[in-house]
Design brief:
- This protein has 238 residues and is an alpha/beta fold.
- The protein has a single domain (8-237), classed as 3-Layer(aba) Sandwich (Carbamate kinase), CATH 3.40.1160.10.
- 37% of the residues lie in helices and 19% in strands.
- The protein contains eight helices and eleven strands.
- A nine-stranded mixed sheet has the order 4-3-5-2-1-6-10-11-9, with helices on both faces. Strands 7-8 form a two-stranded antiparallel ribbon.
- Strand 1, helix 1 (28-43) and strand 2 form a beta-alpha-beta unit.
- The two termini are 30 Å apart.
Length: 238
């Protein structure tokens, strides 16, 4: 068994990253590759909680920008995260791993309600807990939900897997000279207004002393190497 630096983690996956090269939806190759990486760290001894965004299917903020009701849009976005969570559960179970989708809104015919003690018990039993529907409240992003769930399950590390290999001082897709930070404090991120996670998520992590690492989910094997202590992406600490 590998020696891991972190035993209980919360992995926040970008919904957009699940699209692969498509314009929307879920790329089976992407989600199966992620499932294999998650299974590898579980088999090495990690307890894994996951939270997936819904931007590959629907964004409530986009509907609100078009003049529609923000609360309705956010509820629709929550349902999109449930779709992604069910897809991830299926991918994991096809590899023989037990996983549970826990929703912050009641959808009892297809998944469990989120209950903190039950979530922790799933982790202790070696199951992968997939948290869906954000916080269950409008106006809160899935970044905030990830920070909240990480706090509630006493995660030792919050990971945000994106299409970018860390935090930069400007958009690396627009500025080839953008500088990537190896390490930052939460105060650095807030003062520099680095748009990687929303302010509420950063504040939760800072107040509860949960380290955050941003890394490229397309970097094969990166999740395992991070849990073994390798310095990949950008680490944000208090």
């Amino acid at each position: 068994m590998s020696t891991l630096k972190y035993r209980r983690i919360l992995l926040k996956l970008s919904g957009e990253a699940l699209m692969g090269d498509g314009d929307y939806g879920i790329d089976p190759g992407i989600i199966n590759g992620l499932a294999r990486e998650i299974i590898a760290v579980k088999q090495a001894g990690a307890e894994v909680g996951e939270l997936i965004g819904g931007g590959n299917i629907f964004r409530g903020a986009g509907l609100a920008a078009g003049g529609k009701d923000r609360v309705t849009g956010d509820h629709m976005g929550m349902l999109a995260t449930v779709i992604n969570a069910l897809a991830m559960q299926d991918a994991l179970e096809k590899h023989g791993v037990n996983a549970r989708v826990m929703s912050a809104i009641k959808i009892n015919q297809i998944c469990e309600d989120y209950i903190r003690r039950r979530a922790v018990r799933h982790l202790e039993k070696g199951r992968i807990a997939i948290f869906a529907a954000g916080t269950g409240n409008p106006f809160f992003t899935t970044d905030s939900a990830a920070a909240l769930r990480a706090t509630e399950i006493n995660a030792e590390l919050l990971l945000k897997a994106t299409k970018v290999d860390g935090i930069y001082d400007s958009d690396p897709n627009k500025n080839p000279a953008a500088k990537r930070f190896q390490r930052l404090t939460y105060d650095d991120v807030l003062q520099r207004n680095l748009q990687v996670m929303d302010t509420a998520a950063f504040a939760l992590c800072r107040e509860n002393d949960i380290p955050l690492r941003i890394y490229d989910m397309g970097n094969a094997g990166a999740l395992m190497r991070i849990l073994q202590g390798e310095d990949i992406g950008t680490l944000v600490t208090r």
